[in-house]
Amino acid sequence: MAEFPTFLNIPLADWIDAFMDWLLMNFAGVFDAIGGGLLVMLLSVERFFLWLPWWFVILFVGIASWWVMKKWWMGFVMALLLIFIGSFGYWKLSMMTLALTTSAVAVSLAIGIPIGILMAKNDLAESIIRPILDAMQTMPSFVYLIPALMLFGLGKVPALFATLIYAIPPVIRLTNVGIRQVSESVVEAARAFGANFWQRLFDVEMPLAVPSIMVGINQTTMMALAMVVIASMIGARGLGLEVLLAINRIEVGRGFEAGLCIVFLAIIIDRITHALSVRHQKEMKS
Amino acid sequence: MEENSVENKNCDIRIEAKGLWKIFGKKAEEIMGSDLRSASKETIQEKTGCVVAVRNVSFTVKKGEFFVIMGLSGSGKSTLIRMLLRLIDSTSGSIFVDGRDVLKFNKRQLRDFRRHTTGMVFQYFGLLPHRSVLDNVAYGLKVQGVPKEKRYARAHETIETVGLKGWEEYLPSALSGGMQQRVGIARALTTEPEILLMDEPFSGLDPLIRREMQDELIELQDKVQKTIVFVTHDLHEALKLGDRIAIMRDGKIIQIGAPEDVITDPADDYVREFVQDASPAKVLTAGGIMEQPESLLYEWQGPKAALRTLRSLKEDHAFMVTRERKLLGLVTMKRLKNLIQDEGLYLKDALETDVATTDPDVVLEELFPIAAEADYPIAVVDEAGKFIGEIQISSIFENMIQEKVEDNNG
């Protein structure tokens, strides 16, 4: 009896495939429309990033880092990392990766923050969404590539879609946590003065949840960057594709250069968003 | 005529709570409908898992009254005050405010009620930590949708009232506890509510600040004349501030009365135990223990008539007043005799103007330093300067001993 009994087999894979087929048969038009809209957005963001002069980006990142981290030398280091990227010859590809990451983060926030609010306000919603988020985060990220590919074909849009699913959980979770941990006494006071649901949300709960939401944004951004690299497998151009090509051709140096550029981008984004969230926390406390 | 007077009486009532119950838990309604509701708190909790927080509470608060709800933690007092503006929904009963049943309000009416009729002050302040003092004080008006300029103008006024001028731009965390609660009070006053609800507002403050804030609250109440419902676990605070006190235990009100009544006539052993430590020195007032002097001297009297009066009463001194009973000072036998010897014609010339005076609201404790300095009785004078009675130094201490003896006998 070493074998698991076959009559207990559940053909989940078949069901999911059937579901996907059904989705494609009936809603292909919807996905095309969504895909078309997203593509327009993605292309304009990418065009914008490629249009920016290199020296402006370096200057901007340098000054922004100095400003949020309150240390002039941090601004200098961040600018230097960007200069390295340029000098490796990966400026354009880096900007494309950055554009896709930025778009994915923007869409994640636009969808994730409202879902987080819903979770915080409704215990039933929380008990339903929480396990879904757990599953989304533990599922190997490659798995998301398949449905994305089927729904949107090859290119930037499925990359964005896969990135979205992979990167959205932290911002949802931390919006939920942030709102739930707002001091009961402050919310009660707002109620006592006759504040309605939206007034409480925007005047009290959201501002007080900002430090937590900022941590969520930081995590979502980092995960988005990681996934954008993987998403190159389904046709997103950028640094990830470079790594993929290097793997196929066994070019160690090329792979290492592209990989290093990703690391530099990650450091810059992480340091800046982290500093922003810490600063918010400090402001709340002092 | 009689009907009229009844109606007038009703007009004076601002809040009327009738048969209020609050049971926390899923089976609340079930318990209310069964005999179980008369069982003890412990029995109900054991049988159903529900907690009875407030049990059949009724009381009325008059316009401009300072009503204190006192009880230890777990007595249901904080739940009760929250039920008044439905921060916690009552299980059963009714709350009439100016004749309208708060429990029957719809969402909109409730919101307007909270915005315009009541203002609340919380134990843990409940200030917005990310907003300046000014924004916090103006918050109630912001919720109402009052434009920025207007609400800031009004907020500046109340900030000045509570003595926080110059702190408008600071965040609450930069302020001490006492100052934060001033912000809380200013916030509640800014919307000009008729009713102030205060849930242990001074409990988190250290004793010195607490006393100071209590004094200021009394002063403030003299000025603004709100109807105040004030929750506290501190008997001294209750006795000091309240026009009337309701004492709660296990969700029930076991006594309602003026501070003096609670002290001198506790309803049961629980209240008696509670008030045992309350020193009469902190409760009895000058007005309460003063006596009417056997005679007064009047400014138009001649020295010899005055001498006759004092001799007939075998008194050594007497207070002198004007026709309107305004206090002028004290005439002593010794001074009077000197005056007559010098053939003085006016009684005024024998007047000792440096007399110890007090107003009738002052508690005995505060009379001690005055009594220590005074050689003669202390004159009790009202706001208009009218003489209304005198207190013999010895009677201050007699009164305190008497109260103690009564306490021990009871």
3D structure, described in words:
- The complex is a heterodimer of chains A (286) and B (410).
- Chain A is built from eleven helices and no strands.
- Chain A is mainly alpha-helical and 286 residues long.
- Chain A has one domain: MetI-like fold (Orthogonal Bundle).
- Chain A is globular.
- The N and C termini of chain A lie far apart (66 Å).
- Chain B is an alpha/beta fold and 410 residues long.
- Chain B has two domains: 61-281, P-loop containing nucleotide triphosphate hydrolases (Rossmann fold); 287-401, CBS-domain.
- Chain B has 18 helices and 17 strands.
- Chain B has helices at 2-12, 28-32, 41-48, 77-84, 107-117, 133-137, 139-144, 148-161, 177-190, 207-224, 235-241, 259-264, 269-276, 286-289, 303-313, 333-341, 364-373, 393-409; strands at 13-24, 51-62, 66-70, 92-97, 100-101, 118-121, 195-199, 227-232, 244-249, 252-257, 297-298, 317-321, 327-332, 351-352, 357-358, 378-381, 387-391.
- In chain B, the strands form four sheets. Chain B has a six-stranded mixed beta sheet with strand order 6-7-8-3-9-10, with helices on both faces. A four-stranded antiparallel beta sheet of chain B has the order 2-1-4-5.
- In chain B, helix 8 (148-161) crosses helix 9 (177-190) and helix 15 (303-313) packs antiparallel against helix 16 (333-341).
- Chain B is elongated.
- The interface between A and B is medium-sized, with 21 and 31 residues.
